[in-house]
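Person: Show me a sequence?

Helper:
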Amino acid sequence: MRAAANGITALLGPTNTGKTHRAVERMLEHRTGMIGLPLRLLAREIYDRVTQVVGERAVALITGEEKRVPPHPRYWVCTVESMPVGLDVDFVAVDEIQLAAHPQRGHTFTQRMLRTRGVAETWLMGAEAMRPMVEALLPTAVIERHPRFSNLSYVGTLALGALPPRTAVVAFAVPDVYEIAERLRQRHGGTAVVLGALSPRTRNAQVAMYQAGEVDYLVATDAIGMGLNMDVDRVVFAALHKFDGSEVRGLESAELAQIAGRAGRYTRDGGFGTLRPLPGLPARVAAAIEGHDFPPIRRLVWRNDDLDFASLDALRTSLHRRPNHRALQVVARADDHDALVQLAAASDVRARVRTPEDVELLWEVCRIPDFRKLMLDSHVQLLAAIFEQLSGPARRIDVDWMASRIHHLDDASGDIDTLTHRIAFIRTWTYVVNHEHWVPDAEHWQALTRGIEDRCSDALHERLTERFVAREHSGAAVVPRSRRAVRA
């Protein structure tokens, strides 16, 4: 990618400052552009917005599980991990760059921040806490500070029965989300539910129900914290600890602020607090969130991306290469690396790795995400089976073998947990078939897996609504008496 002619701009500030909106508008002022976003849900939201302006034929969407690339797109909307490398576009934007400090995902955000450039202009959007890292690693960047459009105030601790309409309750474990949603249904007639595991289709249906005023409450995980715009007046935390993939830990003030900042929209003020019996936030934490005052980020997570595929040992050595700047630290662990270690230790896998092309193929397979969130051993078994297919004489996945693993997922029956698990599994196969050189007739398989996800997503929305929205005998949703029109 050619170096930017007009340099780098870092837009730093809290939530509700319009940074992402400004970046989209700026991208559309250029002839071509690309924006990287932290979540598939947000990428889909931005893709829909951009296509409304310029039409679907001008916009590509690339996420891990979804690839819509017309013949000659002008704009590319991607998750950060899926941003094409080596693409020449006039404008590039990377959103939520503070995720470069994330233990697992950070190395990808760091590489995009350091190396992905627009020909004419590059924008980096994120928290003010990233200022020292931008100054240290990108000394020529112009930093613009963006203040929040509205005030964010601490409202203390609230009882469930006293929650005002247009409140989002946040929990970090799915069982807790469901338990709170059940209680809100009994007290207030119903609630929408937003989880990170939901497909964009299910999430959009749940949010549309909330936005239309059919329910006045929302229960969510921290999936609402990354730019999803909803008509929320208050954010109330039902928990202050979360499992981060390796341990249960307390959330830092900046993490709480990212979520609390969903309260208030544009110039309308918002509030945040806790849900009883949880105690109130410590005064220093509440003050930090109100004032958007957090410790600066001092280290970013990094991993070498100039990989050596000469052999398995060479690949592992290149993955462990040290950075050349003290502000960068090597990623401690990553799922793809852990999968590589296990697969490389298997004699039957090593026997199939004979050339640099085989090494690179194995690494590609290791990068298939575990959307099901199973134990590593179970996921590695699936990866080993896929690699066995791809390293065979045809160098592609056998259609009968793949069909036997996909067709049984085309089933919209079952409860919420069953459908959620099924959607997670089909997401894995959607990721696989989006590697067009891995499967024959890739468009057929992409349409098939997308159709299965859509049908399961529609069924999941129905199950969520049946369980968490009170209904009259006629089947129509009981709309709370406080129903209001959606505000602009």
Q: What stands out?
A: The first strand starts at residue 8 and ends at 12.
